[in-house]
From TrEMBL:
GO terms for biological process: lipopolysaccharide biosynthetic process. InterPro entries: Glyco_trans_1 (IPR001296), Glyco_trans_4-like_N (IPR028098). Coiled coil: none annotated. This is Glycosyl transferase group 1.
Length: 446
C-alpha cells in the first residue's frame, strides 16, 4: 500500500507494509548521526548531502542526531530529530562537568563517568539513546542507516523490526595507530589508548553487523583487516562532491601563490605538519607562496611548533565557520589545493577541489589515489609524510600555468564521471533494499 492509498483508506501510512528487496516503492529511512557538524570532519558532510539526495529520489529521510547537530537541507523534505547528549565537548567549555539538574538518566551518568576516566563516550551513549528512541517507534522506518556510531545499542535492531545498514568511512583504529606512532612519551601514549578505548567496542559491533557500507576499496580492505569484518558483508558505495556547488567560475580571480587545504583537527592523520614544512621549502623559491587552512588555528602542538620554527605564522592563515559559498570561492581562488594526509578513507576535500577545477597535489595515503588518481593526469601524487616530495610538487605546479589548467580540467571531469552525491544515493538505496530483503528472509525462518 502506498502512503497516498493509506491516507485514502484511513490507514496509518507510517505503519504500512514494508517494501521488499525488489520493490521500488519509496523508503522510510532513519539516518543516525552521533556527530553531525558539517564544518568539521566528513561525517556531517556525508549526512547532509546523502540525506538531501535520498530525498530528491523520493524517499522519506529522518536524521536522528546528537550535538553538534547536522545542518540539513530541510527545503528538500529532510527532517531532524534531536537526540541530545550532555554535549560534554562543546566550546568554549570542553570536558565540562554538568550541573546536577542536567542529568536525566543512567545513560547521562555513563557518559560523564566515561569522560572523567579519559575515554570518549559518545558512540556508546548515542547508540543506547538511539535504540531506546527506535524501540518506541515500531514500524516507522523501513531501514535504519547508522553513520559510523558502531555502538552496542545498535546490535539486535533487526529483531525490533529495523533492518540495519552501517557506514564505516574508515576504521578509527587507523587514527589510533597513527596517533600512538606520533605520541611523545608514555603519558601521551597512555592518554591516546584511553581516549580510543571505544574502538574495542566498535570492533566487536562491526563483526556482528549484517551489512556494512564503506566509501572506497581502500577502506574496505582496512575494515576487513582491522575490524575483522567478513569481506562479503562489506559493500563499496563511493561518495562525492556537490558538483553544482563546487564548480569552476572564471569570474573568481586566482590569488598568486595561494595553496588551500582542509584540516579539521590537529592530528597526525591529516599530515598538516608535512605541508607546513613543505611550504617553508617552497617559499625559498617562491616568496608569494602562502597557505590557507580550512580549520581552527592550533595554539600549541606540532603544527604551531613547526610554524614558529620556520617563521611562517604570517604565511599560514586559518579560517573556520565559513559558509559553503565562501568555501567554494576560497578553493576557486587558489592556485593549488593540497591533501597532505597520511591516510584518508575517501577524501571529500580532494573531490571537492577537483570539482571546482582547482589543480590538486595529494598524497597516496589510503584511498586518495582511488579518488584523485595517481597517474599524473588528474593530480600530482606524492608519498605520505614526505615534505620534500610535497615541496617539489607544489613548486612545480605553482610555476606551470598550463599544467595547472590541464590538471584542473581533468580533475573536474573525473569527479563528474565517478563521484557525485546522486550516484552515492542511488548506490546506497540498492544496499538498503538488499538489507530489507535479507532481514525479511531471516524473519521468515524464525
Amino acid at each position: 500500500m502506498t502512503a497516498e492509498a493509506a491516507q485514502e483508506t484511513g490507514a496509518d501510512p507510517l505503519r504500512a507494509a514494508p517494501p521488499t528487496a525488489t520493490d521500488e516503492r519509496p523508503l522510510r529511512i532513519a539516518l543516525l548521526s552521533y556527530k553531525g557538524n558539517p564544518f568539521c570532519g566528513g561525517q556531517g558532510v556525508y549526512v547532509r548531502h546523502l540525506s538531501r539526495e535520498l530525498a530528491r529520489l523520493g524517499h522519506t529521510v529522518e536524521v536522528i542526531g546528537a550535538q553538534p547537530y547536522p545542518v540539513l537541507d530541510t527545503d528538500e523534505g529532510v527532517t531532524l530529530t534531536e537526540l541530545p547528549s550532555l554535549d560534554l565537548y562543546r566550546q568554549p567549555d570542553p570536558f565540562r562537568t554538568p550541573r546536577r539538574d542536567e542529568y536525566r538518566d543512567w545513560i547521562d551518568a555513563l557518559e560523564v563517568s566515561t569522560m572523567w576516566t579519559g575515554g570518549f563516550p559518545e558512540p556508546l551513549t548515542f547508540s543506547l539513546r538511539a535504540r531506546r528512541h527506535l524501540a518506541a517507534r515500531p514500524g516507522r522506518f523501513d531501514v535504519v542507516h547508522d553513520n559510523q556510531t558502531l555502538g552496542y545499542g545498535l546490535l539486535g535492531l533487526e529483531k525490533l523490526g529495523f533492518p540495519l545498514v552501517t557506514t564505516i568511512h574508515h576504521p578509527i583504529t587507523v587514527d589510533r595507530r597513527l596517533e600512538l606512532d606520533a605520541a611523545d612519551g608514555w603519558k601521551r601514549r597512555f592518554s591516546v589508548r584511553r581516549w580510543y578505548g571505544f574502538t574495542r567496542m566498535q570492533k566487536r559491533v562491526a563483526r556482528r553487523l549484517p551489512s556494512v557500507l564503506t566509501v572506497s576499496g581502500s577502506s574496505r580492505r582496512e575494515i576487513a583487516e582491522d575490524l575483522g569484518v567478513r569481506p562479503d558483508r562489506i559493500h563499496v558505495v563511493h561518495i562525492g562532491a556537490d558538483t553544482g556547488l563546487f564548480s569552476p567560475d572564471p569570474a573568481v580571480p586566482e590569488t598568486p601563490g595561494r595553496i588551500v587545504t582542509t584540516s579539521s583537527a590537529d592530528v597526525p592523520l591529516k599530515g598538516l605538519v608535512y605541508l607546513i614544512e613543505a611550504l617553508a621549502k617552497v617559499r625559498t623559491e617562491n616568496p608569494e607562496a602562502h597557505l590557507v587552512v580550512v580549520g581552527k588555528r592550533p595554539e600549541e602542538g606540532p603544527v604551531a611548533t613547526t610554524m614558529a620554527r620556520h617563521g611562517l605564522e604570517d604565511a599560514v592563515e586559518f579560517v573556520k565557520g565559513i559558509s559553503d559559498a565562501e568555501l567554494v570561492d576560497l578553493v576557486r581562488g587558489a592556485q593549488i589545493a593540497c591533501v597532505p594526509s597520511l591516510y584518508e578513507g575517501f577524501s571529500l576535500p580532494a573531490a571537492e577541489a577537483m570539482a571546482t577545477g582547482t589543480p590538486l597535489v595529494a598524497t597516496t595515503g589510503g584511498a586518495i589515489p582511488e579518488v584523485a588518481g595517481a597517474d599524473g593526469e588528474t593530480c600530482l601524487a606524492v608519498p605520505p609524510g614526505d615534505a620534500d616530495a610535497l615541496a617539489a610538487a607544489l613548486t612545480r605546479l605553482l610555476g606551470d600555468a598550463d599544467l595547472r589548467r590541464r590538471l584542473g580540467a581533468a580533475g573536474r571531469e573525473r569527479v563528474l564521471r565517478r563521484f557525485t552525491w546522486e550516484q552515492a544515493a542511488r548506490g546506497t538505496v540498492e544496499q538498503y533494499r538488499q538489507a530489507i530483503g535479507a532481514a525479511a528472509r531471516t524473519a521468515a525462518r524464525r
